[in-house]
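Much of our argument rests on the idea that a fold can be written as discrete symbols. Part of our work consisted of pairing the sequence of a single chain with a tokenised description of its backbone. The amino acid sequence and the backbone structure tokens for this protein are reproduced below.
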Amino acid sequence: MTFEGDTSRRGVGLHAGPTVLRRVRRAFVLFALACYAALGSAPASQAQAYVVTLDPAQTKVDFALDTTLHKVHGTFQLKSGQIHFDTVTGKTSGAVVVDARSADSDNKSRDKKMHQEILESPKYPEIIFTPAQVRGAFDPQKSSQVDVAGTFRIHGQDHDLTMTIAVQPGAGSRMQCDTQFAIPYVKWGMKDASTFLLHANDTVELEIHATARITLDQTGP
């Protein structure tokens, strides 16, 4: 009868022979290999090392110092900047180098004092930020914000500093990086900019607006 035939086929499924078991094992192995391959081909943005190269010609480094009369504004020139980082480990290396001798507030007598007495730029011609660790989600195709911790060297001394950087993707491999932070220059061993008639703040505000190129890092940080 028809019912007996159906029961027989169900029995084969419950008591599979050696051939069926071999097929099942083979299917399981193929499935496992497929899963492994899928994990290995996950999107590069989830596990990737990059190098960011700043363009000195399209980077602005501005500073501002509050005084009793007005706020003094000035600029520095970027000499070079390149940062290597891994999005998984956060490990970071490289350097951002600013020319201390380029500091300009558009006042010759004030700039002379700044270079000779405060920055002492003939003796300490470079301001260098050396990154060590990056924290925060990063995607080169989307707007993001990351914290970059490292060492800020100015006036011949090293100081721990963390920059919060806003990143905006641009055309092709270009991107815009913006950050601002305070430098307690008096606390860090530089001469107070105050005079007998003019009181100056003991902290300088620094803003960086950088255009950079991002590429895959073939060497890693």
Q: What stands out?
A: The chain has two domains: 2-40, 45-216.
